[in-house]
Amino acid sequence: MTENEIGTIIVEAAIEVHRELGPGLLESVYEVALVHVLREQGLTVDRQIPIPIQFRGIQFDEGFRADVIVESKVIVELKSVEHASAAHKKQVQTHIRLTGLKLGYLLNFGEELMKNGITRCVNGLED
After folding, report:
1. What pTM was estimated for this model as a whole?
2. Number of domains in the chain
């Protein structure tokens, strides 16, 4: 399955979760619900994965935690804020760059309409 195919499933699952739960809950609630829906569809989903970083030739295991990684190919950062900021998008872009993955999503469940809370980020991904 390609990154884009996985991405389509992620977006559809996020819309489904948002439609059922609505906006305004904690990120952790959306995370467990989204992971459940994705796993129901047979995808391999990992949560809260520590990602090390390299700095001046030294590996630091305290780099960051990825909220969700799907099929070891797509990283998903979840937010539950009124409006996602440019800093949130940069965070996802940094995560995909540091992991070497090609596709990431920022999903903001705080938006009134989920479609307004979906930001797709790429790192050398071909269409």
Report:
1. 0.92
2. 1
